[in-house]
Amino acid sequence: MQTIPLIQAGGLVKIYQVAGLEQVALQGLDLEVAQGEWIALVGPSGAGKSTLLSILAGLDQPSAGRLTVSGCDLLRATAAELTAYRAVQVGVVWQQTTANLLPYLSAHANVTLLLALSGVQQRQAQQRADELLASAWPHTPAAGRCTSPAANNSVWRLPVRSRGVQPSCWATN
After folding, report:
1. CATH number of the domain where residue 23 is located
2. Of 18, 59, 108, 132, whose CB has the highest number of CB atoms within 10 Å?
3. 81/130 same-domain check
4. Do 32 and 108 belong to one domain?
5. How far apart are CA 21 and CA 68, in angstroms?
């Protein structure tokens, strides 16, 4: 029996318009990632790593090509479907740590809030936040580790999980 790839991209192209000029970020990218496979996106600045991750997360649309993630055609998805996809399937941890968390909430409250917004019952969200934070940070997070709760916010999602502080790593479990 043949398994369907978790991520399947074909001929992805992304062209940005910058000051009246075209900047090609992706040029005919083909990619298949199987369930459970880990990949690393490496390349020089401007190679399209962050652009690809933004497209995979449903935050941006390619100029051309095709893309399915977990059987969802991201290029044909409606705005509501993309919102649901981002809320349930994909976690994003931004390189700029201040974009990851609400600074006036505790780490626990940040994780609990995202779970609750995704439809998890309050008591279950609090318990899950306890588990995630205890497994990742058995002690109170230091200021330098402020992306940890943001990483936890991305880790709980299934079936697609993204991990990493840098926007150059995409992992699936």
Report:
1. 3.40.50.300
2. 132
3. no
4. no
5. 29
Domain coverage including residue 150: 104-155
Compute the CA torsion angle 20, 78, 113, 115 (nearest 10 deg). Answer: -130
**Which two three-digit tokens encode residue 124?**
């279950």
Q: pTM of the full predicted structure?
A: 0.66
- Looking at the structure, tell me whether residues 27 and 65 fall in a common domain: yes
Q: Please, what sign has the CA dihedral across residues 22, 168, 160, 163?
A: negative
Task: At 142, list the tokens.
Answer: 């230091």
Render each residue's pLDDT in the chain as its tens digit; 173 residues: 667 889 999 999 999 998 999 999 999 999 999 988 888 889 898 899 989 999 998 999 999 999 999 888 999 999 888 888 887 777 776 666 666 677 788 878 888 888 887 788 889 988 888 887 777 655 554 433 444 555 555 544 433 333 333 322 223 33
Domain tally, the chain: 2
Residue with the two structure tokens 């940005």? 16
